Amino acid sequence: MTDTSTQDEITLPDGEVTLLIVDDDHAFVQRLARAMEKRGFETETSETIEDAIARIESNPPAYAVVDMRLGDGNGLDVVDRLRQVRPDARSVVLTGYGNIATAVTAVKLGAMDYLSKPADADDVVTALLRNPEDRAAPPDNPMSADRVRWEHIQRIYELCDRNVSETARRLNMHRRTLQRILAKRAPR
């Protein structure tokens, strides 16, 4: 996450500017919290789903930035609970494991946007304050076809509880081919 200070054109709306940041990467949470405070938000942080939901229950924030994968579960549970407790709240989901299915689910559960890490603070603010009627701008650097394929394979692999044989069967792929793909680094 980079903190670019080109935030002059973005102004916070009048009213409550409480923000809950939920991510299990302590250093990332602290950097994002400082960057968001510089932009006028009153931030609280949480590193677990349990703690985040407790904070939402006691004092629901107007805004939330939630990591998709947390040590104790799925960040979409936090987005869903926030929408139930405070329907007018705006949330953004951040993830290093982006794919279309989870993006659609995040939006259906009430997220304003779905951003891939690393996202800078200005991207997060823009996503939080964007008019829901406006379309999001196309990405400056969209995923390559190889990356989209890799993401799809990773998603199916996770859904099959990291079982290579079951994943290969569902993808109609030879098991050894899948093992070679899984052993490689993610394409750009």
TrEMBL record:
CDD domains named in the record: REC_RegA-like
PROSITE patterns according to UniProt: RESPONSE_REGULATORY
SUPFAM superfamilies: CheY-like (SSF52172)
Keywords (A to Z) from UniProt: Phosphoprotein, Transcription, Transcription regulation
Modified residue annotations for 4-aspartylphosphate: 67
Entry's Gene Ontology BP terms: phosphorelay signal transduction system
Signal peptide (UniProt feature, chain positions): none
The Response regulatory domain, residue ranges: 18-132
Taxonomic superkingdom: Bacteria
PANTHER family: RESPONSE REGULATORY DOMAIN-CONTAINING PROTEIN, STRESS RESPONSE REGULATOR PROTEIN 1
This protein's name: Two-component system response regulator RegA
